[in-house]
Amino acid sequence: MISLLQHLADVPVDLSPLPHVSTDGKIPVVLGIVFPIAGGVDLLVMALAGIRMATSRGDSQAVARARGTIIYGAVGLVVILSAFTIVAFVLTKLA
Predict the structure, then answer these.
(1) Who contacts 74 (Cβ-Cβ below 8 Å, separation ≥6)?
(2) CA torsion, points 76, 79, 85, 86, in degrees to nearest 10?
(3) 63 touches 56 (CB < 8 A)
(4) What are the domain boundaries of the chain?
(5) How far is CA 7 from each of CA 2, 10, 64, rounded to the nearest angstrom?
(6) Of 22, 26, 48, 93, whose CB has the highest number of CB atoms within 10 Å?
(7) pTM for the complete prediction?
(8) From the CA atom positions of the chain, what is the Rg in Å?
């Protein structure tokens, strides 16, 4: 009886209401491609906005548009990094 209880204590019990999803498939591979591309495109947009700001020749409207693009690019980068962190956390919890 004691050995049966010891054996049952070693058996993991999953009480999570979430379905068990295998993360060995295509999801991590696709996300490993999508997130770096999204971050790279965002950094490229911010760099182009910086170039546009530098070459605006003092035009206040062009500077304001470039500044807005840089701000939105920074917000987009924060969103991309947050999404990557959340997805990585969820995938490790589901594994």
Answers:
(1) 46
(2) -150
(3) yes
(4) 23-94
(5) 9, 5, 68
(6) 48
(7) 0.68
(8) 24
Q: Is the pLDDT of residue 72 over 90?
A: yes
The token pair at 52 is 């546009």
Alpha carbons 62 and 68: distance in angstroms, whole number: 10
Tokens 């997805």 found at: 87
Closest by CA to 62, choosing from 49, 44, 45, 75, is 49
- For the residues of 59-94, what is the DSSP string, one character each? -HHHHHHHHHHHHHHHHHHHHHHHHHHHHHHHHHHH
Q: Is the pLDDT of residue 8 over 90?
A: no
Determine contact, residues 72/46, Cβ cutoff 8 Å: no
Q: How many CA atoms lie within 13 A of 7 on its CB side?
A: 4
In the predicted structure, residue 16 carries a pLDDT above the cut 90? no
* Closest among 18, 28, 36, 29 to 91, alpha carbons compared: 28
Structure tokens at 26: 């295509």
